[in-house]
Task: inverse folding
């Protein structure tokens, strides 16, 4: 696995420059790709060009949520996004899920461009937003799953079979015939994960998948992901998490983000060796430049 | 085709299942319709005269004329509200983003979201007319039912375009519905809803001729009250279909652009 640091541009590059001359930040190059992100930038509000820039010359300056990141995820690989709040993890996942358009650069899933071929991308992915919203509160959990299953072109028989299986795997059997408004946050979170997996997508994008789960639920979910989803080698996983244990357990590689940039991208062992750290927490603090402040504060305490 | 129908059915079934959890709404709306019809009946008894009946296009009583106008206002209201309400509900419940990451296309999501509300509004119109016929002598014996069905479908197609345009505005600006305000406001005066167009000044009559509601009302009254077969229905029906042919693709294009814009600004789920 090769990771290289590329040139940093003085000003924002054009799309043609992005593909011919170099990339910002760090690129993790792999041959076959399930997910490919190349020089991806996202600004809020979006930067304007041409006549729009002329018409609104005094518009407020934009903030870079993603400042030209590049990486790839191989089929069957699990990659964790690790970063502080506001590092750009959710923005990246939302671009890959076709819910946001990038400002520059491109993001591909299984060869489909997220901006140009969103339907092609959506055929390949399961997305979990990490929130306990996103369901019809007055419908039962089963009716919700059936609805989203039909919109993902599953037959009634397949939907029934998979709901039964996922119901067992996610401890949802009791909850399936209850209205979603009567379920706890943790149960809705498990339901949301079941929805993301219902159509057995080859690429899974999970944004803080165990955020609302209790310790048992989170452990079971991690075990399920590891043994039932990832062990088969057919599903690629890109997930954002603040739970370091989860990252260590699931991720083949860890992508550390800070202020919209990738500051490192490698296996845990290599990251530890390169930073001279003894734990993932230490790796993260050192790579994001918070290590010394943090340890100073800790020693003062 | 079968896949699209299956997706549409999924939306319809979803909305039907949600509606079933509000058990008393249907009964209350049926009772409300009864009082609404009674109100028009007694207003008509108060204002009806041979001169007025002569001035009305189908020559019948004012009760039948105004009741058709009123229920069509309901239809227009539903068309303008359906997409907005679906969008707002999806945004508030957080389901909008999950709908947009499914494999279902945007036009089907839009059409599917409108299927149940339009069906319910059509049923509500039937209840209004039914109460009118059963209790207050609304003349159904001359109705051309095939014409009524054709007018309803053409009206639905024409008004759907307006509803989608209105939802595009909501997607971009998050609040308000100026198209609804404008169209309902204009239609109250310039469409022949509660009085014939002939009583309006020339410039308002001209405005009414640019309003699809005018043609929907003309066609529906001709089909429901006129009993003249397709002869009296086809002209306004063709105009309605022309409105639909122009508005539907334009509105879906505008909505897709608005959606792309919100994906660019990152405000898709903002309220």
Result:
């Amino acid at each position: 696995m090769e990771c290289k640091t590329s040139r940093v541009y003085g000003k924002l590059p054009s799309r043609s420059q992005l593909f011919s001359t170099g990339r910002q930040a760090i690129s993790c190059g792999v041959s076959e790709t399930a997910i490919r992100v190349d020089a991806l930038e996202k600004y809020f509000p979006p930067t304007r060009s041409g006549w729009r820039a002329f018409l609104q010359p005094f518009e407020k300056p934009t903030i870079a949520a993603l400042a030209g990141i590049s990486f790839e995820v191989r089929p069957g690989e699990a990659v964790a996004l690790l970063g502080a709040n506001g590092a750009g993890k959710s923005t990246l996942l939302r671009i890959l899920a076709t819910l946001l358009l990038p400002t520059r650069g491109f993001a591909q899933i299984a060869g489909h461009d997220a901006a140009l071929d969103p339907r092609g991308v959506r055929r390949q992915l399961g997305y979990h937003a990490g929130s306990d919203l996103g369901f019809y509160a007055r419908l039962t959990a089963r009716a919700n799953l059936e609805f989203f299953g039909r919109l993902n072109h599953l037959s009634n028989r397949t939907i029934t079979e998979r709901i039964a299986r996922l119901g067992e795997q996610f401890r949802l059997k009791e909850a399936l015939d209850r209205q979603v408004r009567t379920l706890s946050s943790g149960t809705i979170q498990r339901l949301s994960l079941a929805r993301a997996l219902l159509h057995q997508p080859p690429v899974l994008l999970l944004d803080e998948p165990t955020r609302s789960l209790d310790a048992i639920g989170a452990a079971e979910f991690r075990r399920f992901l590891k043994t039932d989803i990832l062990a088969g080698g057919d599903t690629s996983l890109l997930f954002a998490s603040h739970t370091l244990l989860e990252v260590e357990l699931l991720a083949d590689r860890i992508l550390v983000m800070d202020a919209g940039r990738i500051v490192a991208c490698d296996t845990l062992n290599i990251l530890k060796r390169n930073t001279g750290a003894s734990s993932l927490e230490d790796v993260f603090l050192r790579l994001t430049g918070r290590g010394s402040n943090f340890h100073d504060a800790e020693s003062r305490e | 085709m079968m896949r699209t129908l299956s997706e549409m059915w999924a939306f319809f079934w979803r909305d039907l299942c949600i509606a079933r959890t509000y058990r008393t709404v249907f009964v209350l709306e049926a009772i409300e319709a009864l009082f609404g019809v009674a109100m028009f009946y007694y207003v008509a008894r108060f204002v009806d005269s041979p001169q007025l009946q002569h001035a009305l296009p189908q020559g019948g009583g004012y009760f039948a004329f105004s009741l058709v106008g009123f229920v069509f206002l309901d239809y227009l209201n539903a068309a303008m509200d359906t997409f907005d309400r679906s969008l707002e509900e999806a945004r508030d419940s957080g389901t909008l983003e999950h709908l947009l990451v499914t494999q279902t296309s945007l036009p089907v999501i839009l059409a599917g979201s409108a299927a149940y509300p339009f069906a319910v509004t059509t049923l509500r119109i039937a209840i209004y007319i039914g109460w009118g016929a059963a209790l207050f002598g609304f003349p159904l014996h001359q109705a051309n039912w095939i014409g009524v069905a054709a007018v309803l479908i053409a009206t639905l197609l024409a008004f759907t375009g307006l509803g989608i345009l209105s939802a595009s505005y909501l997607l971009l600006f998050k609040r308000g519905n100026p198209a609804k305000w404008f169209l309902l406001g204009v239609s109250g005066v310039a469409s022949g809803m509660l009085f014939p167009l002939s009583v309006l000044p020339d410039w308002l009559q001209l405005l009414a001729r640019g309003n699809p509601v005018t043609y929907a009302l003309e066609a529906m009254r001709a089909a429901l009250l006129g009993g003249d077969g397709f002869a009296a229905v086809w002209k306004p029906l063709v105009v309605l279909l022309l409105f639909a042919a122009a508005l539907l693709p334009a509105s879906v294009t505008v909505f897709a652009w608005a959606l792309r814009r919100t994906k660019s600004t990152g405000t898709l789920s903002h309220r």
Remarks:
- Residues 2-124+201-300 of chain A form a domain with the Rossmann fold fold (CATH 3.40.50.300).
- DSSP finds twelve helices and twelve strands in chain A.
